[in-house]
Design brief:
The complex is a heterodimer of chains A (147) and B (184).
Chain A: E1 17-24, H1 27-37, H2 47-52, H3 62-77, E2 82-90, E3 100-113, E4 116-127, E5 130-141
Antiparallel strand pairs in A: 1-3, 2-5, 3-4, 4-5
Chain B: H1 8-12, E1 23-25, H2 32-42, H3 52-57, H4 70-73, E2 114-124, E3 135-149, E4 152-164, E5 170-183
Antiparallel strand pairs in B: 1-3, 2-5, 3-4, 4-5
Classes of the chains: A alpha+beta (147), B alpha+beta (184).
Chain lengths: 147, 184
């Protein structure tokens, strides 16, 4: 990732893709994530407990899934972009160990609000082409060329 | 009484703030080691989150915490010095004592053995930087909808709460929905 490149509001047009980011889920990664974000609910790192709860396997926790969106947003918005709001972060399906979560998105709208130049991104996570989280709307403030 | 009727006391409590003014402080301040560990499973290499010089060049007062880490920094400890023992059972999948009290719940729900997060909305205000200490305030129940799903019977409960820093500045507003249920 080249962090010296900054996307500006004028560079963006509706329909543009948000570059996809992939997250293969292994037991190791889920355990590292649990330790990092301190969500120790056993459904996220213990297959037996996850299955007893009705899930097919241990699955990624909310903080991890939101972090996946944050990485995709940050890689799109660059160092001078700023997230203002996220809505529609709906976890529709389990993102289980042994699967790869891919975060994708598009630019849904461009607008101004006060002094800010904003873009609304439609973002979602998918596994095997099936949406597992979202689609939600992420509002990001981007710098302008004249700024 | 049907299983749905058992949720009526919770439905009747919609609109109530179950936080009752309590400020729940996170166990840890935002520190460099915790941030490094947070970035690791995400492979999030944005320098705002690990390089103070870059963060300052871009207008922040220090290394910036990812917004997805706010849950972590408002989480209370599993155990604290001087507190009661948390690990009192050697049953393989036993939870630490007191962990249930940390869930989003009213105390009016019928007994439920399972729960998971279903939906989130958040609005971000002040950035969080290294050294900040976050706390959670407010716990308003805004919706309760009993529903049978593929994993069991229970209810979707939607909550609103805020995250503030050590200066009482509003960092973020959250609205999250949890599904409490009994598998089957």
């Amino acid at each position: 990732m080249d962090w010296s490149a900054q996307r500006r509001w004028e560079d963006v047009k509706e329909g543009d893709d948000v570059p996809a980011v992939s997250f293969p889920l292994t037991v190791y990664r889920l355990v590292v994530e649990a330790g990092a974000n301190r969500d120790f609910n056993a459904i996220h790192h213990n297959s037996e407990v996850a299955r007893a709860s009705g899930a097919p396997e241990m699955y990624a926790n909310t903080g991890f899934l939101l972090g996946m969106w944050e990485r995709a947003i940050r890689e799109f918005a660059g160092l001078d972009g700023a997230v203002r709001r996220i809505s529609g972060f709906r976890m529709r399906r389990f993102n289980t160990v042994g699967q790869t979560v891919v975060v994708r998105g598009t630019v849904a709208a461009k607008r101004r609000e006060g002094d800010e130049a904003l873009v609304d991104l439609e973002l979602w996570s998918e596994v095997g082409g099936e949406v597992t989280v979202g689609p939600g709307t992420v509002t990001v403030a981007l710098p302008e060329r004249r700024a | 009484m049907s299983w749905e009727d058992a949720w009526q006391p919770v439905i009747d409590a919609v609109g109530r703030d179950f936080g009752e003014g309590e400020v729940i402080e996170g166990a840890d301040a935002v520190d460099a080691s915790a941030l490094r560990r947070f970035l690791e499973p995400l492979e999030l290499d944005c320098p705002l989150h690990h390089d103070a010089d870059v963060a300052r060049e871009h207008g922040y007062s220090g290394v910036v915490a990812p917004f997805s880490s706010y849950f972590t920094f408002v989480a209370p400890p599993v155990w604290r010095p001087g507190g009661p023992s948390a690990f009192v059972s050697d049953e393989r999948n036993a939870l630490p004592e007191g962990i249930a009290a940390r869930r989003f719940a009213t105390g009016l729900e019928p007994p439920c053995s399972g729960y998971f997060a279903a939906d989130f909305e958040l609005e971000l205000f002040e950035p969080v930087v290294l050294g900040d200490r976050l706390s959670r305030t407010g716990l308003r129940l805004v919706k309760c909808t009993p529903k049978e799903t593929s994993v069991g019977r229970g209810a979707f409960m939607t909550w609103e709460w805020e995250v503030r820093n050590q200066r009482s500045e509003l960092v973020a507003c959250f609205r999250n929905t949890m599904y409490l249920y009994n598998p089957g």
